[in-house]
Amino acid sequence: MIGIRASASGIVAGNTREAETTLFKNRIMSSKPSADEKRASEAAAPETEEIYLISRSVEGCLAVINGSTPEDAGVVVTKPDCNKEQQWYNCNGQWQWGGDRSLCLAPAPGGATVGLAKCSSSSAIWLLDAEGRMTIDSRALAVPKRFNEPVGLRPVSESDHEKWWTDGQLKASLKGVKPAVYPVAADDTTTYEQEIARGILNQIATLTEPLPYPRDVARFPGAVDDTTPRVCKTVTLDLSVLGQPTNLRMLKPRDWQATGLYVAAGDVFQVDLPETLSPQRAEQIGILVGAHTDRLFPHSGTVRHKHFWRMPTVTQTFRVKPGQNYLRSQYGGQLIFMFKNGENFKTDAVVSNVVRAPYFRLGETTPDEWENLKKLDAPQALFESERVVLVVSSRVVHELPFPDQLMQRYEQVIDSHNDLAGFTHDDPPPRAKFWLVNDIQISAGSAHAGFPVMVGPCRNLASLHSPYCWCIWHELGHDYQQAHFWSYAYGSETTVNLFSLHDEEKFFKKDQLKDGGIYRKTASKVDEGLTFQHADCWQKLVFLMEIKYFFPDIGWDMFRQLNRTTRALSEEDAHRLATHHQLQIDYVYKNLSKSVSHDLILTNERWGIKISQEAQQEIQSLGLAKAPADLSIRD
């Protein structure tokens, strides 16, 4: 089969992957200093091997960013990468920085954090002790909870936040060890730790050599055949509109841009940004390879006491700079661009040495195009509409008919959620797209909310039935919940299903709580003394739905108005509401009472929900008639 490889003048046909790999190696090497230049620059320093210091708590490398002098350098922990900013040289306890070996690690002025100092004048001598702590003067390097925050100094303790691996230690732990074969038992902590070590060492490995620890991707996310043509494609990155309305008070989708390109595991791929692009704009652009972002741990709900069915991590993120960027994913996956807030602009990125994936865009892909696209052999396929992106296994799309109806249904679900959330032209919904991703194993449950929404093997997102199922309504509903402002006070697993019931009524003219007799059974329980506090999530949902049914002229609009009112709160009022449970209970009571033009105090009392005197007086001052205590649905 004829392959595709990059050349200095564009794309040319190539007969073998070997020529392509050699070309990429040559281009990478040409951007690095020669051996003579390296020896000359390091002549004044002792000959030692570079060392990566890797935090045991966050699995990131000690690095210098945002500067290169003692005055402006920031010493942080960042994601492992193969660059000099993360390399250190231990010269008799003086830890010289790989980016400039005339500088070394030292306590910063004030002593609470660390920075760089000139080696010639620094007296900072560090001890890497047997427990993995980097200590100086009875204090240890301490890692913050998040990447790219200043590394501090703390009194020596047993915390993993003070313990480090070196890359040499990780390599020694894998010597003579066979690669993991999945599934792996959840209690096999040795194999789990070895898998984490392999992942870190692959990330810091030089790109001119093969991956030192090839990963078991055949099972998941999938392997790409060496004979599959690699392509080059120009992608227009659209950062012309960024960010979300500040008052959404729900989960905000992120600014991800799909490409329809797939990176093969172990391949060095190239992303070229314009040389004229400013570093500030380049900083707004990141790359994610693989949409399956769930990290699995031995204690994860789907793993505990069972098995890992895939590697703990199967995605990687990358930073890019203006000009040429050579990158490698050890797992492979869909190539996705991620954008940070900042300047608004568009620019082109030229992506090379990747493969095309089955990629359907509603309103753009034609039936004839789809017939060819769905036959592509990339392991993962992608479907995109105006507000939804799906990532599924390519195996499930080979027999899939034209997916226009599938994506139209997902759009209908978003319309329905936006409707209940009360969004309007003047109060717009999230701008970015919701991503839903199929995975063979996720961190919790059969599906879970978040960004992206993760769905396990129980449901095929590319099935025509999936957009109209309770699972999808429920998980997207979690993303729409107004959480700590009122939703959680009435039950996270309760208020989320307002969206599910709204969708069910809209699409099927039914209510499964009625069909299952839940309203009638719950009414009897409340008659017997059941209180809201001791009710389960379905019974709590009955409380809210009783009000909806008792006032049919208002119906769902009471919840629309509640959501709108919450978005209209000032930041100060929203913060105050989110930090007081009783305020949230009062808040819903007052808002629903105003919506239905009746005081709902009696039904709250029937359910044992305590409303403050202040809230009761506020509603009483409006002169509203009291609604009956018993709003039960007993049909």
Give a verbal description of the structure.
With 635 residues, this protein is α+β, with helices and mostly antiparallel strands. It is built from 17 helices and 32 strands. The strands form nine sheets. Strands 16, 17, 18, 19, 21, 22, 23 and 24 form an eight-stranded antiparallel sheet that branches. It has a six-stranded mixed sheet with strand order 25-26-27-28-30-29, with helices on one face. Strands 6-7-8-9 form a four-stranded antiparallel sheet, with no helix packed on it. Helix 3 crosses helix 4, helix 8 packs across helix 9 and helix 9 packs across helix 12. The longest helix has 18 residues.
Protein topology:
Layout (H helix, E strand, L loop, with lengths): L2 E5 L2 E5 L2 H14 L4 H7 L11 E3 L5 E5 L8 E5 L9 E4 L2 E4 L2 E8 L6 E5 L8 E2 L5 E3 L2 E4 L9 E4 L8 E3 H8 L9 E2 L3 H16 L26 E9 L16 E8 L4 E6 L5 H5 L1 E5 L17 E2 L7 E4 L3 E6 L4 E7 L5 E12 L2 E3 L5 H7 L6 E5 L3 E6 L10 H18 L12 E5 L8 E2 L4 E3 L14 H11 L11 H17 L3 H4 L2 H10 L9 H14 L6 H11 L3 H8 L2 H16 L1 E2 L1 H6 L6 H8 L4 E2 L9
Parallel strand pairs: 25-26, 27-28, 28-30, 31-32
Antiparallel strand pairs: 1-2, 3-14, 4-5, 6-7, 7-8, 8-9, 10-11, 11-12, 12-13, 15-20, 16-24, 17-23, 17-24, 18-22, 18-24, 19-21, 19-23, 26-27, 29-30
Helix pairs in contact: 3-4, 7-8, 7-9, 8-9, 9-12, 13-15, 15-17
Q: Which outline best applies?
A: globular
Instruction: Tell me how many strands there are.
Output: 32
Mean pLDDT: 92
Q: What fraction of residues sit in β-strands? A: 15-25%
The end-to-end distance, rounded to whole angstroms, is 68 Å
- CA radius of gyration is 28 Å
Oligomeric form: single chain
Low-confidence stretches: 1-25, 28-46
**Count of discrete alpha- or pi-helical segments spanning 4 or more residues:** 17
The biggest beta sheet is recorded as: 8 strands, antiparallel
Helix content range: 25-40%
* Helix/strand/pairing category: alpha+beta
